[in-house]
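Q: For a teaching session next week I want to show students how multiple molecules come together into a single three-dimensional assembly. I've collected the sequence lines for a complex. Could you give me the predicted structure tokens for the whole thing so I can convert them for display?
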Amino acid sequence: MTVTEQAPILTVENLKVHFPVDTGTFFTKKKTLKAVDGVSFQLHEGETLSVVGESGCGKSTLGRAVLQLLHNTDGQVVWMGQSITGHSVKEMRPLRKQMQIIFQDPLASLDPRMTIGEIIAEPLVTHHPELAGEAVRDRVREMMNIVGLLPHMINRYPHEFSGGQCQRIGIARAMILQPRVIVCDEPVSALDVSIQAQIINLLGELQQKFGLSLLFISHDLSIVRHISHRVMVLYLGNVMEIADKDDLYNSPKHPYTQALISAVPAPDPAVRKKRVVLKGDLPSPIDPPSGCIFRTRCLYADEQCSQKKPDLVDCSTSGLNQRHQVACYKTDIIYG
Amino acid sequence: MFSYILKRLLTAIPTLLIIITIAFFMMRIAPGGPFDQERQLPPEIEANILKAYDLDKPVHEQYFIYLGKLLQFDFGPSYKFRDFSVTELILSGLPASFQIGGLAILLATFIGIGLGTLAALYQNQKTDYAIMGVAMTGIAVPNFVAAPILSLVFGVYLAWLPVAGWGDGAARNLVLPVISLALPQIAYIARLTRGSMIEVLHSNYIRTARAKGIRERLVVICHAIKGALLPVVSYLGPAVAAVTTGSVVIESIYDIPGVGRYFVNAALNRDYPLVMGVVIFYATLILLMNLIVDVVYSFLDPKLRVSG
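A: Of course. Below is the structure for the complete assembly, covering every listed component.
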């Protein structure tokens, strides 16, 4: 993968998204829910960075904050060297051409009162008002062809399509402006397994063809392994580990990553894997544990882990610098 | 679509028949009769009157006689207003009621939807609280309170507009009755619009529209309003029927020669044909409005579009 030593297209530094929450009925105490709490990463041209983690760990919030669909509380989002943190809706508008998003629920994300032709054309009409009707229609047909929709479907409404087709519409809608980055927010989790493969392969093809960068949010580790170049593991809004795909799957350093990877079912029923089972539940993001956020469920946690939050530190074994980072005090002990 | 409308119109006939039947027998079950007076009439005269109106026959026979006349669009004579037929009475009151009611519903629709949308866009902010506060007041204050106050302020103190009176439907005379009829409707429609608009604004496809980079104004106009209007449209159907057929209270306060006053007076006088006429008229209007609502629905929501 030649996706390394150039300037990143998107840089996220210490991103935090906190939501105020009211607790109690009459005597409300203002508390904050830390959905994303200090996430940093870089995304390069043509690269797929996957974000994995269990439900409620802030994956989707991260994706939306990156696109400034949600405003972050702290930290920076830098797009091609220019900070877009706190950009207003108006300031973001020209940038939407270059950064798009595909949503989780394909049908609900399409306006039920528009034909798919109108849905796919709308970004084009919005951002290129100079285009004539015929040019727009040609472009829509071309896009439908690329994502595998038949041209005669152009006047149908979203409810007349299956989930997989709706997601193809969503992809066509996102791709029509030829963006450079697409945030894929669990694009296949609502689909059947056979359809999942089609959509994933389509995304892969589009990436090859147009040099797209993908921020791929998922909780399905098998899919992530198939599509990613790099993988970031999120737990309660914090990065536990970030590494190249093969490093992460073959030698996970963080106890949480190890547990996640041991939970991936093996296709061969004869293979018996050693399963790391986590105890307890996900702590509340309103009252997260002190120190290392994972310590309440960690097999190796001790006194040190409850003192201070561990930083992401480099633990690369290959020559490349900063390619494998992990936030854990105990990697030395775990690996003897 | 055409055959759908035709089908709906045909199914309206049995519905109307059921309504007519129930209304007819309920009127007869109610104690008292149209010619009962404090001073007893001589029995011969009473018998003559009853005979003239077929009221001496058994009730089921009267029912079939009435239905037979209805088929010829003969609603019969009014018992109370002896020189007029029911048709004449209703037709004479309709223009005034339709004029005031129609204007009131138009006003209420535009202002209500506008205010409701505004409140939804500024949900839980000052604008929202102000609009919803006014709307709650509009619902809570009955029109027999609002109408005299409007009359007092604009008619007596400021002397901008006539206190009451019809004046052959001059614009000056219309203002106050239209406003007092529209006020509670504005409030209802604003509340309905706000509720459904908030729901739509939180839906996934609105998020998609924002991610596309569409102007916020267009997000609301192109994507949100159509969806948010569905509950408003279904409310508007019966509301149009209710408001355009006149209000007893408003017509009494502003002395308007509308059809609304017949609704109550006819029932109190046991004026059987007039009651039946008013019921049939109102029921037909409601059935018609509901049909229109369903047709409008299919324009607003492609999922409800009927084929054939």
